[in-house]
Write a structure and sequence with these properties.
mainly alpha; 2 domains; 3 helices; 35% helix
Amino acid sequence: MTDRKRAGLDLDQFEPKAPVGAAKPALAAAIAREEGFVSRSSASVSRRGRRLVRQPIDITEELRAWLREEAHRRDVTVRAVILKALKDKGAPVDEDDLVDRRRTY
């Protein structure tokens, strides 16, 4: 490394939130939750602690377009459209999974 400072970046007054020797990944996740950020890794566990898994499927472009249009029409996500259809067919879908958690600004 070099002793030169980068132009415009003066970190002399910087005080890190993490104490020295703290577990960095756990602390980073805690700070991200505190600040309202969601990371990809934290999205794999739902609010009730159930483990979520991805299930990729191949669908036609026409079906994808229909799902997107239906989601837009209902003002929900494509995921919600699919889960609602599965629930209507008797699948064990929890009501909490149908709640819209999108942020509106």
